[in-house]
Specification:
By secondary structure, the protein is mostly helical. The chain is about 70% helix and about 0% strand. The termini are close together.
Length: about 120
């Protein structure tokens, strides 16, 4: 995620086949993270030492990118966009139910997640 943030994706790049593959992989990674947090709750309490590898610091960026993904650019891209959005939502639900208890939106949960891990949310 931080690599995407540091590269600075433009609107045109968001609808490329490469971006589609990257977002598909990120959606799968987020699903694995949800499972890890549900099965190994102690992993939540391990804080990443580096801003560039911190999920808590970079998840808001991915949420912002997911909101910018173009609509109506083909069935595959539409599916990947929705998979990414659902995966982000599922992670927010997992974090909130298990650890944060904010009852907030996806963005509010991720902001609290960053704060709880001593991070400034990257956008």
């Amino acid at each position: 995620m931080s690599q995407l943030r540091r590269v600075g994706l433009g609107k045109q790049q968001l609808s490329t086949s490469v971006a589609c593959a990257v977002f598909q992989n990120l959606a799968a990674d987020l699903a694995h993270i949800c499972v890890d947090y549900r099965q190994y709750a102690e992993s939540y309490y391990f804080h990443d030492g580096d801003e560039n590898t911190s999920l808590a610091a970079n998840i808001m960026y991915l949420t912002a990118v997911a909101e910018q993904l173009p609509d109506g650019t083909g069935e595959e891209r539409r599916l990947v966009r929705e998979l990414l959005r659902v995966s982000l939502h599922d992670l927010a639900v997992t974090l909130d139910e298990r650890f944060l208890h904010t009852g907030g939106t996806t963005q509010q949960v991720f902001a609290r997640y960053a704060q709880d891990h001593g991070r400034a949310a990257k956008r």
